[in-house]
Structures are given as structure tokens and as C-alpha cells.
Amino acid sequence: MQLNDTGLLRQAALIGGEWVSARAGPALDVRDPATGDIVGAVPDCDAVQTQAAIDAAQATFASWRAMTAGERCDLLERWYALVLAHADDIAAIMTAEQGKPLAEALGEVKYAASFIKWFAAEGRRVSGHTIPSPERDRRIVVFQEPVGVSAAITPWNFPAAMITRKCAPALAAGCPVVIKPSELTPFTALALGELAQRAGFPAGVINIVTGMPAVIGATITASPLVRKLSFTGSTRVGALLLEQCAATVKRTSMELGGNAPLIVFADADLDLAVKAAMASKFRNAGQTCVCANRIFVANAVYDAFAQKLGAAVSALNVAAGNDPASTTGPLINAAAVDKVAAHVEDALAKGGRVLARAQGREDGQFVRPLIIGDATPDMRLSSEETFGPLAPLFRFDTEAEAITMANATPYGLASYFYTRDLSRAFRVAEALETGMVALNTGSIAMEMAPFGGVKQSGLGREGGLTGIAEYLEHKAFHIGGLELEA
Fold first, then answer.
1. Which of 57, 258, 269, 330 would be 99's cystine partner, CB 3.0–4.6 Å?
2. 97, 108, 255, 433: which one is catalytic?
3. Are 311 and 238 found together in one domain?
4. Tell me: the pLDDT tens digits for 4-41?
């Protein structure tokens, strides 16, 4: 990995404005999933250091919230400009530790920056309101105030965007943050922290604690100083964090597991559906919570769609992310590879057929994207989130059947469908049990729209107008005894 600015590769935690090493014990090695080589090492922070980060955030809360919205948002604007100016280096760091192709990593950096830009503007518009009083001598004013110290526990699959999507609104609202990035991909977070320092954020407003999740997470959830926790990850871990947060009654946002359906109706534009399915399913080698995990295709167009999708998948090339010819990088670790293999083996044993495979490498943590035809509900890939480049095709006959199959999951994050029938578009959009629905597109994640799920896919929303509301309390101010008559 070659960087134009080597100062962005920080191998320390950021606590109270200082870059610090672990108090004791060995550092954690971070490995390139494409080669297994060590990218660098970061501290495995303990409970004492995590509490120090929380204390640093709390110590700066009063002064940070007292700044004007314009002053806070000016800092966000400077941070945004620095992220874009160093986008190539951040992308190189991301590819080295996460594996995605450089072009895709660069796209994520720009996507991550868009949240900083959006909330730099949105933070200037936070305002309260007045309520008509039932009494002549009373006035009721509602203030919107920052929640307090906010923690963000972020995943490895989008190591830049998941941080800015959580932290930009928190900072704009007046909340200092404590960030716990994935131990698999900490360097992207640390590069963002370095740039935030250069932008001029006061010491203690942004803290980054690296290390294994159990001790750090438990310290965050137990602390009464942390008033908000935002987490992106598995439903299992999210449920555990919710349980731990109950003792201190924290506000929480949980973006958890998904099992997204993608429905192709008989009247769909198949070329559009294939293009969108490719974008949804195979982005980041299928390692996204909103990727199309189950593809339902009307019998009337099943063969035609399978042929077109197969041609597109066959054109993909699996290679290291820094290879210019790469369209698909490695999976994050051996466990991810094993899960995809287990789903394929189970599907083939239950009557599935391999319809197409990508070209390129299939060794180590590289898995060639593939399509499984004749998928059935009893296969593991139907009920479990594969989180890899495996696209199963299911058949259906009626609209009602497709909706029933799509909703037959405890998850409800995203869904996609393709039709030219306007009446059907509204029927299906309203019937699908997900927090986000996409019609004739494979893209649903953008800074100006709310992002989040229902059922066991989580609580709360990120992005859009609701994104900053997650970090604001509504305080009702009742003013009585006013002498308002001359």
C-alpha cells in the first residue's frame, strides 16, 4: 500500500485528542484479506481506556453544545473537504484492510463524505417550535437539545460510511462521540479521525477506541455518561447490546441483519432488473446487509432473466482489490468463505443448480460469484443471510405468492422489485414488510433518505431528516404567570 500522505495510517487510538497505545498486552494485527499480509497493528484498548474516551467526550460536551450550529457545521465542512482531498489515500487504506476493489473503495469514501456534507447543512436547520397554550398567561416552547455523549459501534464491510452516517449527525447536533470501529478494519476510521483533527475539531469531541468488542462494548453500554448508542451489525449482537443498554435506559439505533428479497415480475424491464440486481447483490462481494439475498422471478420470465443475469455474473472478475481488472475482491475472513460454501453445498444437495460463475480467483478468501437456480424455501440460503456473492433464483406464479415468500423472514431491512404496472407498484410497496423498498432500482442508500429496518432488522433511522433527530431531545419549556394584557 502506497500513500501520498503516510500520516493517515495511524496505528494508535484517539482519546481526548491524543494518539495513544494500549496500556498493556500485545497490539492487534490487521491483515489484508487478499494476501494475509499484516497491514499494521492497533491497540487492543481495555475498559480503562474506553472509559477515558467516554470521560473525554463528556468533558467537552458542555463546550461543544454551546458552540453555535454554524460553528460546529463549519468544522464539518472542513472535515468534508479534507476527506475528499485525501479520498485516494483513504480508499487505498480501505482496500488494504477490507479487500474491496479500489474503485469501489473510492466510491465509498465519496459516499461517506456525502453524510458529512449533508449534516453540515442539516445541523444549521435544527430548530424548536411553539405550541398554542390553553391559558392566556402561559407560553409553551419546545427546544431541541443534543442527547449527550454518543457511541458508534461500526462494522467492517463499510468502514468509512458507517462512521460518517452515525457521527456526522451526532456532531452536528452537538453530541461528542466515541467510535468503536471493527477490529478487522480500524485504519479507515483512524484516517478519518486524523483528518477530523486537521479540520480543527476540539480535543475530546471525536474519540476512537480500537480493539476487541466485548470489553469495549460492555464499558460503553454500562456507562451512564453515554446517552446514545448506534450500532450496525448482526441481530444477535444488536439484541445483546439492547439488553446491556437497558440498565441505563440509553437511546439506541440498531441497523441489524437483513434477508432482502428481490422480485422480478413478468412485466419487468429485464435489462434494468439485471443491472439493478447486479448492483444490489454483488456490491462488496455480497457483503452488505441490504444485498438481494433471495431473488424471486416470475415463471414467465425466469429463463430469460436467468440467462441475462448469468451473462452479467460470468463477466465479473475476482481478484485482489488493487488489481485494476478486479470487479470483486476477497471475502473478509475464512469464516465468510466457509458460510458461502456451506450454503452452496446445501442448495446443491436439495436440488439447486449452478447456472453461472464469475471468472478469476477462487483460493484463499476469494470466492467467485455464482447463481443457484431452482432454489427452494427449505434451503439454508432462503432463511439465513449468506453475506457473500451467492445469488439464488426462486420461481413464483402470482403476485400474492411472491409477497408471501418475500415476507417469510423475521428480518425487514430492504426489498426490491421490478414492474411497469403502476397499480402493482403501490400494492407491492405497501405489502412488503421492510423499512426500505426500491422499485426498478438496486440503490437505496443515500445521505438524504432515511435508512433502517423493521422487525428484527433494527430500530431507528440513519440519514435524511430523521438522521439528526436520533441525536436530539425535545424539551418542553412552560412559561406561566405572564402579564400579557396592558
1. 330
2. 255
3. no
4. 999 999 999 999 999 999 887 789 999 999 999 999 99
